[in-house]
Amino acid sequence: MIGRLTTAVEFTGEEASPWGALKLIGGSANPALAQRISDQLQVPITDARLRRFPDGEINVKIEDSMRGHDVFVIQPTCPPVNEHLMELFIILDALRRASAGRVTAVVPYYGYARKERKTQPREPISAKLVANFITLAGADRLLLLDLHAEAIEGFFDVPTDHLSPHRIFSEYLLTLGLRNLTVVAPDAGGGRRAELVANQLKAPIAFGYKRRTGDDEVDMIAVSGDVKGRDCVVIEDIITTGGTISKLAESLRRQGARKVLIAATHPVLTGNAIERLKKADVDEVIVTDSVPIPPEKLGPPLTVLSVAPLLAEAIIRVHENRSVSELFR
Ligand code: R5P
């Protein structure tokens, strides 16, 4: 695991905040990430005593008083998405009933983000429904990381901070000694994400044109841009089945790319995604710890960079009522 602070954390203590003491609570979705954030902040995690009733329903008992405190609940809603969402709702409800001063839901991976619009009649907009539930359950504000679609921020009527991992990726990529770099967006929707990295690395952008033929099948038709003889870094938000990456790597090699690296924020890696990535013609797949990766899936081609320092820094800034966007200037 590679990870360090992007800038120095200056935690001036709870007296700097109008919201009471900073408290951290971790759900069961990514306890390792919650612990890394806790280590960065040197604030312990308050035990939420998550347990199950015999019929599988979730119960929570927050162990310490939360009255008047500034509470951050760390819970990416990664698979099993519905379980982790329900757990988040129940923790938020418990905190509201415990008279917490302010509650921020820290959701580094947002489940259902890919259903942010209707593509056919009579479909839901599940990402909006999830936003409604999170605020209804008791979140006063949100801390989010690399949403599939930026518009999802607007689904919330409470303050949100939307973090980007582009600096984490760029700083790591700069250590690799890549030559004639081209940053690749897998599709037009990923243009802005790729642009952030390309600007930092002063590299040109190429675009993929993607046609999905099924839930885990993709036809990568073409890549437009300067890739021949160049080191190509694909900037992606999510790897789910690995279908997009495999097809894109094929196209890039066919068009003469010298190296193909992938930088993807959320390694959801369902089913045989890891086998697919191992077989794909890629030099390295760089991901973050926004979503936990089981030990058997770790190792080449994966490199894991931690987002804990970035999240910790944002939490301090929210707590002390300081700008979060400054982090990205
Ligand atoms: C979709 O548009 C996303 O940006 C990713 O490209 C997609 O989620 C990747 O999924 P998969 O790994 O299943 O191809």
Write a structural description.
The structure is a single chain. Helix content is 28%, strand content 25%. The chain is an alpha/beta fold. It folds into two domains: 14-164 and 309-328, Rossmann fold (3-Layer(aba) Sandwich), CATH 3.40.50.2020; 166-305, 3-Layer(aba) Sandwich (Rossmann fold). The protein has a seven-stranded mixed sheet. Strand 6, helix 3 and strand 7 form a beta-alpha-beta unit. Helix 2 packs parallel to helix 3 (126-137). The chain is globular, with a radius of gyration of 20 Å. The mean pLDDT is 94. The chain binds ribose-5-phosphate. Ribose-5-phosphate binds next to strand 12 and helix 6. Ribose-5-phosphate (R5P) binds at residues 114, 148, 186, 190, 216, 218, 236-244.
Gist of the model:
This protein is α/β, with parallel strands linked by helices and 329 residues long.
Annotation, overall tally of beta strands: 15
How many separate domains? 2
Which ranges are low-confidence, i.e. pLDDT below 50, for 5 or more consecutive residues? Answer: none
SSE series: EHEEEEHEHEEHEHEEEHEHEEH
Helix share, percent:
25-40%
- Global shape: globular
Measured by DSSP, the beta-strand proportion falls in 15-25%
What is the radius of gyration? 20 Å
**In terms of quaternary structure, what is this?**
single chain
Ligands and ions found? ribose-5-phosphate
C-alpha end-to-end distance: 26 Å
Give the C-level CATH assignment of the largest domain: Alpha Beta
Strand order of the largest sheet: 11-10-9-12-13-14-15
Task: Report the sheet with the most strands, covering strand number, pairing sense and barrel closure.
Answer: 7 strands, mixed
